[in-house]
Specification:
The protein is of the alpha/beta class and 396 residues long. The longest helix has 23 residues. It binds pyridoxal-5'-phosphate. Pyridoxal-5'-phosphate binds next to helix 5.
Length: 396
């Protein structure tokens, strides 16, 4: 039989999805499973986006421009400018999700065996995109005691080699919920300029910040124009994960010309989804206000309830809708599987994402899980109650 590629063999499994078969077994037994493991929001997609697709009168579902609809890029630029981000239409290429934007960013800036430094824990698919691009991830560890703040900049310095091409951050962070301060962004800006590296910022959760904390974009740092590459997406902003629309943004003309070649090779982003995404930009501010209030309340409930459990430690998220919780157990992977396979509280159980999959250093975060607060408040309360009881039984 012909052999599978090395690259294919090295592709990591998703830490979020690998427990799915056990969840299916639990459901077959008739158990209700609360999904704390996955970032699929239960928030309704804005009507304006759905109606635009319903009302579209298309006779030929043709390719669009490889950079995306001109009208969409124009409106997106206005949207960014409204958020004080000086982004022009030419600085934007529409992609099939933020996922493809990440692939274009890596493809445009990194060669095989080049190194990218990423603070961990990080969005697990960065591992997959890096393997797919032949790029080596060099993790720099952040920890729960500092709420997953930016590691000291000297830690980055120590890891920079002649192979280092970029630093990648996620802001606000999935899975940490950490939001970088202006000072932290400035430190990153200084180090990439000093060593001539790209700074790639995944800002797909930009709107989701709490407690009056403000998001600081890398697109707002003057002097960083040739270094900064921003990744964006409609998936979470408008609860449109299935649309598969995102974009890559940079003021660096060479980066954009290169990314455009990748965009041309895959022809175009999806047409109906661009219609929905363009219309979504008309979503009233009141929608975001309501959604953010809802997430903040969910976060508060989740963190408060978790803190009531003996031995549990949580880093309070300032943004996005995830948190990392340290549990009084040795192996979260085993615990997560056990929750699905062997445990129920009155016919109900929870599914969590073991955090080890969000680290690329081995044997780190083994006692941590990532929890997404994308469920209704009463379900979150129920879920933590199940978790508390489960810990009691598991640790007996
Ligand atoms: C941090 C981060 N970046 C990128 C993505 C990719 O999203 P999409 O391809 O749906 O835009 C996700 C999805 O969960 C994410 O959490």
């Amino acid at each position: 039989m012909p052999k599978i590629s090395q690259k294919g063999t090295s592709m990591p499994e998703s830490p979020i999805r690998k427990l799915v078969p056990y969840a299916e077994i639990a459901k077959k037994k008739g158990h209700k499973v609360y999904h704390l493991n996955i970032g699929q929001p239960d928030i309704k997609t804005p009507d304006v986006a759905l109606n635009a697709v319903k009302n579209a009168n298309i006779e030929i579902l043709e390719y669009s421009h490889s950079a995306g609809f001109d009208s969409y890029r124009e409106k997106l630029s206005a949207y960014y400018k409204n958020q004080n981000l000086p982004i022009n239409k030419e600085d934007i290429i529409i992609t099939t999700g933020g996922s493809e934007a990440l692939l274009f960013a890596l493809g445009s800036t990194m060669d095989v065996n080049d190194e990218i430094i990423i603070p961990e824990p990080f969005y697990a698919n960065y591992n997959g995109f890096s393997v797919a691009s032949g790029v080596k991830v060099v993790p720099v560890i952040s920890n729960i005691d500092s709420g997953f703040a930016l590691p000291p900049i000297e830690d980055f310095e120590k890891l920079i080699t002649s192979k280092t091409k970029a630093i990648l951050i996620c802001n606000p962070g999935n899975p940490t919920g950490y939001l970088y301060s202006q000072d932290e962004i400035n430190q990153l800006a200084a180090i990439v300029k000093k060593h001539d590296l790209f700074l790639i910022a995944d800002e797909v959760y930009r709107e989701f910040t709490y407690d009056g904390f403000k998001h600081h974009s890398i697109m707002n740092v003057s002097g960083l124009e040739n270094y900064a590459i921003m990744i964006d997406s409609v998936s979470k902003r408008f609860s449109m994960c299935g649309a598969r629309i995102g974009c890559i943004v940079s003021k660096n003309k060479e980066v954009m010309a290169t990314a455009m070649k990748f965009a041309q090779a895959r022809l175009s982003p999806p047409t109906y989804a661009q219609i929905a995404s363009e219309a979504a930009l008309e979503t009233p501010q009141s929608y975001f206000d309501e959604v953010i209030t809802e997430y903040k309340e969910r976060r508060d409930i989740l963190v408060n309830e978790l803190n009531k459990i003996d031995g549990v430690k949580v880093a309070v998220p300032k943004g996005a809708f995830y948190c990392i919780a340290k549990l009084p157990i040795k192996n979260a992977n085993d615990f997560a599987q056990w929750l699905l396979e062997k445990f129920d509280l009155n016919g109900e159980t929870v599914m969590v994402a073991p955090a080890a999959g969000f680290y690329s250093s081995p044997n780190v975060g083994l006692d941590e899980v990532r929890i997404a607060y994308v469920l209704k408040k009463e379900d979150l309360i129920k879920s933590v109650e199940i978790l508390r009881e489960a810990l009691n039984v598991y640790n007996k």
